[in-house]
Amino acid sequence: MTYGAEMVRPDLDHLPESPLPAGLVVRTARREEYRKVFEADTEAFQDHWGFIPPAEEDFERWLGEPTTDPDLWQVAWDGDQVAGNVLNFINEKENLEYNRKRGYTEGISVRRPWRRRGLARALLTRSLQMFKDMGMQEAALGVDSQNLNGALNLYESVGFRVVRREVVYRKRF
Which of 21, 32, 130, 155 ranks highest by number of CB atoms within 10 Å? Predict the structure, then answer.
């Protein structure tokens, strides 16, 4: 069992400045690099509660999801290696249904060698600025509130607030 939370940043005003750590660059992933992004994200989450290694069909399914939009991703590179990423998306159908302009900052991950240097914060604030520039008015994400890397505190520090809590169970087979 773990505890999850849905978090919302209700506006995109007064965004904190968070510089990218030295030696890293953020650029759009090319199609041939999507697998690197997927594998880096998988590696970063391997020690999280409920982790199950993905199968090949999971990669294909991930690419085919309607909300997968690599043009919105914020991917930090150290040479040809993915250091971390935020796999942003916009759910247009949901925004129309609820009459809002919300972007999602999901898939926030940093690989171990680049942790504790401010990379997740930098990628997250870049994501929020991108959404603001696109005309979005708020951002949301989901988090395991018992995340080993203190994700909940990070998200609160950039203006996200918990709007819903849930208990997550896993049945053992």
Answer: 155
Q: Tell me the two tokens of residue 85.
A: 């990423």
Residue with tokens 């603001």, as numbered in its chain: 132
Q: What is the pLDDT of residues 93-149, one digit of tens each?
A: 999 999 999 999 998 999 999 999 999 999 999 999 999 999 999 999 987 766 666
Are 125 and 15 a contacting pair, CB within 8 Å? yes
160 is written with which tokens? 């996200």
Here the tokens at position 158 are 């950039």
144 backbone φψ class: left, alpha, beta (φ>0; ψ -120 to 50): beta
- Domains along the sequence of the chain with CATH: 2-168 (3.40.630.30)
CA–CA distance, 92 with 44 (Å, rounded to integer): 28
* CA pair distance 43, 112, nearest whole angstrom: 9
The DSSP code sequence of 61-109 is HHHHSTT--GGG-EEEEETTEEEEEE--B--HHHHHHHT--EEE----E
Name the residue with tokens 């990669």.
Answer: 59
